[in-house]
Amino acid sequence: MNGSKLSINRACAVGAAFLGLLSIMTVTAAFLFPRNPAIMWLGPLFILLVFICAALFVAFLRRKLVLFSDRLCETIDDMLDGTSAPPQVYEGENLFYKIDHRLVRLYEVMRENRESVAKERADLQELISDISHQVKTPISSLKMVNATLLEQLMPEEKQREFLRASSGQLEKLDFLMQAMIKTSRLETGVISLDRKIQPLYDTLAAALGGILLNAEKKNIHVSVDCPADIALAHDRKWTSEALFNILDNAVKYTPADGDIQVSVQSWEFYVKIDITDSGKGIAESRQGMIFKRFYREEEVHDVEGIGIGLYLAREIITTQGGYIKVTSTTGNGSTFSVLLPRDP
Fold first, then answer.
1. Distance CA 236, CA 252 (A)
2. Residue 303: closest CA among 248, 260, 257, 259
3. Average pLDDT in the 251-262 region?
4. Which of 100, 111, 204, 277 could form a disulfide with 250 if both were Cys (CB 3.0 to 4.6 A apart)?
């Protein structure tokens, strides 16, 4: 039997069996041949064999400990480097099985933490890149306006025109910062949504109130079908924010004289809110990307916005246990369906 494969439990069992058999043979010989002079040597011989067995066991145990310590050091080094997982030990009687098992678990925890840190670092890098891209244009515009006002003499009306342009860029920066603050608070759990059973009608009315003026400017007809008796568990403030973001997008991308329809249906487990516009629609290949932070389609960059509204809306709805889906075909408008669970 290979010594490296022999467990300590088996070595103890073999040694005990050998010493037991030797003891039985010695006692039997002394009982059968009490007057034989050769029997007198059995006692010292037995003691010598016991010492030899003990020495062999100690040597075996030392070898096992040395092998285990070497493997333990090598395994820990590999775990620290992240090169390989510790080998699994499947011999349940092995005295080192518990340590091996915990090493495997420790490696799994370290790997999960390493992957989590790498993902957070990548997300942070992407966020910084996105923010840098978003603030680059307004900051450049503000620098240009400021330099023009400082270096050139111009009529008062022209100065006001430049200041209005500067004010628009400042509002865009402020909107970006406010949106980022809301998003970060939701993602980090700083803000906990207060879900309680209340009428959806008032929440939807608050969201609609924020878009009616812009809709009126474009002569967009907004129709609403929401029964006043529908109540469900939701956070009124944040749900209204999510619905407003979807409605605001509908107004932005619906042409003048278009239509926006809002309908609410009460199901057994969910309440469904459909927001349908008569805009240009969204290609199927892009429908999975529109909820990404700062995503905007190339052909709509002339429309005011920074591409964070739908991302924030999805965060708010999913935090409450709901979800958003979109149905759209190019040229035929879009329908955003918000589904909120009825149970608190």
1. 24
2. 248
3. 90
4. 277
* 199 three-class SS: strand
Judge contact between 262 and 274, C-beta under 8 A. Answer: yes
Residue 285 DSSP symbol: G
Name the CATH superfamily for 196-341.
Histidine kinase-like ATPase, C-terminal domain (3.30.565.10)
The pLDDT of residue 329 is 83
pLDDT for 322: 93
Residue 216 CA to residue 238 CA, distance in Å, equals: 25
> 124-150 b/e with 16+ CB inside 10 Å = b?
eeeeeebbeebbeebeebeeebeeeee
What are 57-97's pLDDT values in tens digits? Answer: 777 777 777 777 777 777 777 777 766 665 555 444 455 66
| Radius of gyration over every alpha carbon of the chain, rounded to an integer in angstroms | 38
Give the pLDDT confidence of 38-58 residue by residue, as tens digits. 655 666 666 777 777 777 777
Residues of the chain above pLDDT 70, percent: 73
- Over range 128-146, report the average pLDDT: 75
For 250, residues 6+ apart whose C-beta sits below 8 A from its C-beta are 211, 260, 275, 277, 279, 334, 336
> Which bin fits 114, alpha (ψ -120 to 50), beta or left (φ > 0)?
alpha
Q: Where does the chain have alpha helices with state H?
A: 8-32, 42-81, 97-151, 156-188, 200-209, 212-217, 236-253, 309-319
Residue 334 pLDDT > 80: yes
**Any idea what DSSP says for residue 342?**
S
Q: Which residue has 């340590």 as its token pair?
A: 99
Please say whether the beta carbons of 303 and 278 come within 8 A. no
Q: Please determine whether the domains at 112-188 and 196-341 fall in the same fold group of CATH.
A: no
Candidates 254, 252, 244, 242; CA nearest to 304 is: 252
